[in-house]
Amino acid sequence: MNAFSAEDLQRLARHGLVLFGGRLIHQAQPPVTDEQLAEVERRVGRPLPPALVRLWRVAYGGVLDYDLRVDYQGHIHPYSLRELFYPGSDGYNDLWGWLEHEQEWARQIAEEEGREWDGRLDFLPIGGFEYLERLYVCVEPGDYFGRVYAWSQGLPPAWAMRLHEDAFARVADDLEGLFAQLAYERDPLAEDADGSGLELLEALIPLEEGDAADQALAERVKACLGALVLDWQAALDTGSIAARPDLQRLALERAVEADDTALLERLEASGVELGQLIRGGVNGPVFARLLKRDAVQAWFAARGIAERQREDAQ
């Protein structure tokens, strides 16, 4: 999605759409000013990583509408990365609110360790979803400076296939690396689409109602969004799915959801490991039991593929 001219980017920006790392941000806020950058650095107590500055020079906050999964030590978690925080945003907290939250935690940890907090943060929260997910950039100087980390809040045990303890994991070496992972697990352009991407398509409507150049640009953007679909079906058809664990997991999920034993047989013939963990720390047989998919449950049992799950998924 990088093959857009300066004029294209200007047209998109007029409708609150900006491009960073090959992905669109909608409801994009104006670029950060030097004064605003200095204020963030003052509150953090450290210089900011170059990739974060590059992002904020494009948009100092906004909304993302993609799918992302985070691997928390084998627990594959569908991660909600919706907000890019900024001062005055109307989410659960704005950027300043989350900074104050981190400062309070840092102060509390220092007290528990019997030392005085030096007023500097090691991690800067830059995005997430309400109070459940937060995305951090490491601002501590050293080998991890600029690396990106995800945090998710654990939910009560009654929530099957969800994290039951707070989790934290590195997800990318920098923000461009993170944005490169943003994709679609279901085609947002499909007639029956009901997942991520629909808000972004809605944001394109003013372009579609514009002049001929706007309309052509909207079509090009939609084609780029379609190219971000994780197409497990094509990989299965071409025989390449055995080299793509992410597509294997999606295909297994779809087979269980649809109670589709024929698809399971195709996956088996393609060399897919049918007992692997797929989502939420469980494998296909557990997922089938939870969804009450009798046909695939029986299919797994007939082949001796036992239930397997992480303790934190029970």
Features:
Knr4/Smi1-like_sf; 6-stranded antiparallel sheet; 13 helices; 2 domains; 314 residues; alpha+beta; Knr4/Smi1-like domain-containing protein; single chain; two-stranded antiparallel ribbon; SMI1/KNR4-like; globular
Topology record:
Layout: H1 6-14, E1 18-20, E2 23-25, H2 34-44, H3 50-58, E3 62-63, E4 69-72, E5 75-78, E6 83-84, H4 95-112, E7 123-129, E8 133-138, E9 148-152, E10 167-172, H5 175-181, H6 198-203, H7 205-208, H8 212-226, H9 232-238, H10 245-257, H11 261-269, E11 277-279, E12 282-283, H12 284-291, H13 294-302
Antiparallel strand pairs: 1-2, 3-6, 4-5, 6-7, 7-8, 8-9, 9-10, 11-12
Helix pairs in contact: 10-11, 10-12, 12-13
Pfam family, one: SMI1_KNR4
Domain Knr4/Smi1-like: 31-181
Organism: Metapseudomonas otitidis
Concise summary:
This protein is of the alpha+beta class and 314 residues long. It folds into two domains: 31-181, SMI1/KNR4-like (3-Layer(aba) Sandwich); 232-313, no CATH class.
Could you please describe the fold and organization of this structure?
Helices cover 40% and strands 15% of the residues. With 314 residues, it is α+β, with helices and mostly antiparallel strands. Helix 10 (245-257) packs antiparallel against helix 11, helix 10 (245-257) packs parallel to helix 12 (284-291) and helix 12 (284-291) runs antiparallel to helix 13 (294-302). It has helices at residues 6-14, 34-44, 50-58, 95-112, 175-181, 198-203, 205-208, 212-226, 232-238, 245-257, 261-269, 284-291, 294-302; strands at residues 18-20, 23-25, 62-63, 69-72, 75-78, 83-84, 123-129, 133-138, 148-152, 167-172, 277-279, 282-283. The strands form 4 sheets. The chain has a 6-stranded antiparallel beta sheet with strand order 3-6-7-8-9-10. A two-stranded antiparallel ribbon has the order 1-2. The protein folds into 2 domains: 31-181, SMI1/KNR4-like; 232-313, no CATH class. The chain is globular, with a radius of gyration of 22 Å.
